């Protein structure tokens, strides 16, 4: 029996039972589509989180832990490692710094930075320049919003009460200093931890303003000083940290491994990426397992359809055997039918899954924004569903394997039908 005759034999029977075959195909499609769409959620969340991390400038940075300032010897060694661009020393000043401008006051965290190393890095200023003297500073993008007078504080208190009654929160962003900060002179006071009071005020000049933070929920009110400040205030309590800047993400792990071999305490977000990949691998396997259950449920329909096909075609099987058809040929005919059902269900499932994925990514941001009106999702690149080819291949393979296995037992039963008994069966 030629292959085209086998195909024709199978297709004729499928046409005779259009309704039953159609419902079975739909069941297989729903099961496979459920697996793909469910697993696509894991791929989508992973893609979103990895994109956020990869777009963060800190992805090519390595943090050095420790309470002591990096020695010149250590700094020279690290700077000599291949692909290391800059070793930036920084020290956070203990306590808040009080700022006074005209009739306004504010409090900010502050840091002292090695400006010689900072100048080797791409500028992170929205305007102005880096400090060159001890009495020059760079302020955060939202520093002006943190300078309030009595009228501002009264207005903030009023708006906060209104927001609290409405079940929301007011951050005071509409108040603050509205004038130009660049090149302004401002009075600063450092906090003395021992005396538990602010030191004598000193005048500083604002020479630069940092760029707007990447995330809207971040409020940058920090003050950055040149390392020359420690000559003016040698008794300031600081907490030093060092950051290693690597030229590209591909070279972060080799540099990190070399530093660990030398017993440096280091950390990089690239390590977090590896942990993230492992977590989502397990998560996606779990989702695929749950989705496979839906396919197994659909396999019951395929098994039932093929069992009925064997029962209805007992006489045809007897005729085929009588004219010399081998058991393997008869088994192959029924397996071809179950395979066709699996293929049709899988193809339709892939089309439906991509349609659902596209619709979810287009509609869900608006649904979430409506449900959470205080959240602005327009600045977030959220992927709710992502269907890579690997997922399509895995889901398709599972669906086809289940369809073939579901038809295997009925196909074997067909080969066991006795010729004489089959030919005696009434039409």
In which range does the helix fraction lie?
40-55%
Order of helices and strands: HHEHEEEEHEEHEEEEEHEHEHHHHH
Kindly, what is the distance between the CA atoms of the first and last residues, rounded to a whole number of angstroms? 24 Å
Largest sheet: 12 strands, mixed
The secondary structure category is alpha+beta
Question: Can you give the mean pLDDT?
Answer: 84
Number of alpha- plus pi-helical segments: 12
Give me the Rg, rounded: 35 Å
What is the number of E strands? Answer: 14
Count of the separate structural domains: 2
In terms of DSSP E residues, the strand content is 15-25%
Low-pLDDT stretches are none
Task: Report on the architecture of this protein.
This protein has 2 domains: 3-55 and 274-424, no CATH class; 66-264, no CATH class. It contains 12 helices and 14 strands. It has helices at residues 3-16, 18-55, 72-79, 115-118, 150-165, 229-232, 252-261, 269-312, 314-322, 327-371, 389-415, 419-424, and strands at residues 61-64, 84-93, 97-101, 104-108, 110-113, 125-128, 136-139, 185-189, 191-192, 197-198, 202-210, 223-226, 238-246, 266-268. The two termini are 24 Å apart. The mean pLDDT is 84.
Keywords:
16% strand, 427 residues, alpha+beta, two-stranded antiparallel ribbon, twelve-stranded mixed sheet, 14 strands, 2 domains
């Amino acid at each position: 029996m030629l292959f085209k005759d086998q195909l024709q034999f199978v297709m004729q029977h499928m046409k005779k039972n259009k309704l039953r075959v159609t419902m079975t195909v739909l069941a297989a499609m729903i099961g496979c589509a459920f697996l793909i769409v469910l697993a696509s959620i894991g791929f989508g969340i992973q893609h979103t989180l990895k994109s956020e991390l990869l777009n963060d400038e800190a992805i090519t940075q390595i943090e050095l832990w420790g309470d002591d300032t990096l020695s010149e010897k250590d700094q020279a060694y690290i700077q000599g490692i291949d692909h290391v661009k800059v070793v930036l020393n920084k020290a956070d000043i203990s306590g808040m710094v009080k700022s006074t401008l005209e009739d306004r006051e504010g409090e900010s965290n502050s840091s002292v930075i090695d400006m010689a190393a900072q100048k080797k890095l791409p500028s992170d200023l929205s305007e102005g320049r880096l400090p060159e003297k001890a009495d020059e500073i760079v302020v955060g993008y939202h520093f002006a919003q943190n300078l309030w007078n009595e009228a501002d504080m009264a207005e903030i208190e009023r708006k906060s009460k209104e927001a609290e009654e409405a079940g929301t929160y007011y951050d005071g962003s509409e108040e603050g200093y509205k004038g130009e900060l660049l090149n302004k002179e401002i009075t600063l006071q450092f906090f003395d931890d021992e005396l538990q009071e602010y030191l004598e005020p000193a005048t500083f000049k604002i020479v630069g303003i940092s760029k707007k933070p990447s995330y809207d929920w971040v409020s940058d009110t920090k003050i950055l000083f040149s390392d020359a400040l420690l000559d003016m205030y040698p008794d300031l309590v600081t907490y030093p940290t060092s950051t290693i800047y690597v030229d590209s993400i591909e070279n972060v792990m080799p540099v990190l491994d070399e530093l660990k071999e030398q017993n440096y305490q280091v950390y990089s977000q690239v390590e977090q990426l590896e942990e993230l990949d492992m977590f989502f691998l397990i998560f996606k396997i779990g989702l695929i397992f749950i989705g496979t259950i839906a396919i197994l449920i659909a396999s019951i329909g395929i098994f039932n359809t093929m069992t009925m096909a064997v029962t209805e075609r007992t006489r045809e099987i007897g005729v085929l055997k009588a004219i010399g058809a081998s058991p393997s040929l008869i088994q192959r005919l029924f397996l071809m039918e179950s395979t066709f059902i699996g293929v049709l269900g899988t193809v339709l499932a892939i089309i439906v899954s991509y349609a659902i994925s596209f619709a979810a990514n287009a509609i869900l941001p608006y649904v979430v924004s409506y449900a959470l009106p205080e959240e602005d999702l327009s600045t977030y690149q959220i992927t709710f569903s992502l269907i890579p080819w690997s997922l399509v291949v895995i889901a398709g393979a599972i669906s086809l394997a289940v369809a073939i296995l579901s038809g295997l037992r009925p196909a074997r039963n067909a080969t066991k039908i006795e010729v004489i008994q089959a030919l005696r069966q009434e039409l």
